[in-house]
Amino acid sequence: MSKKKLSTLALHAGYDYSKSLKSRAVPIYATTSFVFDSAQNGADLFAGKAEGFIYSRIHNPTTTVLEERLSAYHGGSAAMAVASGCASNALLFLGLADSGKKIVSSPHLYGSTFSFLSHNLKKFGVAVEFVDVNDEKALRAAIDKNTLMVYAESVGNPSGYILDIEKVSKISHGYNIPLVVDNTVTPPPLLNPFEYGADILTYSLTKLIGGHGTHIGGMIIEKGDFDWGANPVFTNYINAPDPTAEGTNFWEVYGKPFYKEGKSAVLINKLRGDVLRGIGATLSPFGGHEFLKGLETLNLRAIRQSESAKIIAEYLSKHHKIGWVHYSGLKDSPFYDLSQKYFPKTGPGAVFSFGLKGGYEAGVKFIDNLEVFSNLANILDARSLVIHPASTTHSQLKGKALLSAGVTEDLVRFSIGLEDVDDLIEAIDKALSII
User: Fold this and answer.
1) 17 touches 11 (CB < 8 A)
2) pTM higher than 0.90 for the full model?
3) 51 to each of 18, 245, 381, how far by Cα in Å?
4) Which domains occur in the chain, in start order?
């Protein structure tokens, strides 16, 4: 079904109802384990010589449909569902990382990801260097023979920083290393980074793909055409006998015969058989079912929410009580040209931030008097959301520490939902009139 359009793939890819008692909806397989046909069948399943399910910590029929559907939705080769967006990044880093190796990353990241890269990976002897990856000179200076990947978010939250995927992927590939993009904020139909050269995508399914604020989950998607055999930096784990998988060389078995056709699944097989099986950060079948329902309407929701965000950002940019707006679709944004390159029709997603001229006190008063919007620590729900980080998520930080985290006392973040845009503007205008 790879040649179908997005709306069709979101409803049908990865599932054959004739093999599931003709259930039109994907069933929830609420089971820990799966019965083997025979002792030999069990042995073959564990050895990877037969297809089938073993244990839901490794894979489950419900989550497998979600994996195959999202992989097809992006034109990828394989995907792996995990327990959260943070888990998708952490498992990827741990699956590829090795003592003495290095990750080059953009600093414009979700706070927990930044912290994991800055602190947790050091315990494993993995170096991380943060640079403006859009700056070619800085990126080339950061990459060395031990570099495993270049990592960035497609659109930074809440900075609005836009990754120049096409440019950065060409530089990365010149060193035979993959570009990894966290595309949580702008999944297709807004942006498919694979079309511009990205090799691996990570997602928090919790956000726009799930869309309804009902479950936590994550996903790793492999494009399938990266040559993991071209760089000796990968010979310690992908292109070498793996002791955790009975000496399997994942590149030789799952990658080398298929990558030129874009069908290599070496990374996902490695991650599933190694870190997911060992760490167990597994997405439940109930969560998989929730995200399948969200995916069915993603194509409609993403465009509507992004269009409304653009209208509201433009409205705020002209309001006399607003000091600044970080929305890269505005003409005065330093990322406007990149916004036009990657989001010419839809705008760069539904999340952006702005500053109130009254500072901290104005931010608190605005939040307390804002109707319709929900004040909570999430983004990209079907409902519009708002938060004032300086008084909530970053309240433990003051002064320079707060600024170093990319947060000012006046900063307010919006995540625009599916409500009528006129009702949202009315609510914003009423709250602004009080401060």
Assistant:
1) no
2) yes
3) 18, 16, 36
4) 6-295 (3.40.640.10), 299-434 (3.90.1150.10)
Q: In whole angstroms, how large is the CA radius of gyration of the chain?
A: 22
* pLDDT tens per residue across span 17-34: 888 888 998 989 999 999
The set of residues, in sequence order, having a beta carbon less than 8 Å from that of 66 and lying 6+ positions away, is 14, 81, 219, 283, 288, 291, 292, 295
Please, which residues bridge with residue 355 across strands? 324, 411
DSSP H helical segments within 61-192, as ranges? 61-74, 85-96, 111-118, 136-142, 165-174
Burial class for 42, CB neighbours closer than 10 Å (0-12, 13-18, 19+): middle
3-state SS class at 111: helix
Taking the alpha carbons at both ends of the chain, their separation in whole angstroms is: 54
Sheet-wide strand order for 102-105: 78-82, 218-222, 200-204, 179-182, 147-153, 102-105, 127-130
- Give the residue carrying structure tokens 């403006």: 132
């003495």: which residue's tokens?
A: 100
Q: What whole-number distance in Å separates Cα of residue 426 and Cα of residue 400?
A: 35
Q: Report the C-alpha gap between 168 and 107 in whole angstroms.
A: 15
The answer to whether the beta carbons of residues 268 and 79 sit under 8 Å apart is: yes
Q: What residue type is 248 in one-letter code?
A: T
Which alpha helices (DSSP H) does 75-201 contain, by range? 85-96, 111-118, 136-142, 165-174
Residues in contact with 5: Cβ distance below 8 Å, sequence separation at least 6, in sequence order: none
Whether the CA torsion 345, 350, 352, 354 is positive or negative: it is: positive
pLDDT of amino acid 406: 66
What are the beta bridge partners of residue 353?
326, 413
- Cβ atoms of 385 and 379 within 8 Å: the answer is yes
Task: Tell me how many degrees the CA angle 207-425-110 measures, rounded to the nearest 5.
Answer: 30
Coil, strand or helix at 257: coil
Q: What is the mean pLDDT of residues 338-346?
A: 95
At 307, the pLDDT band (50, 70, 90 cuts) reads: very high
Per-residue b or e along 67-79, where b marks 16 or more CB atoms closer than 10 Å to that residue's CB = bbbbbbbbbbbbb
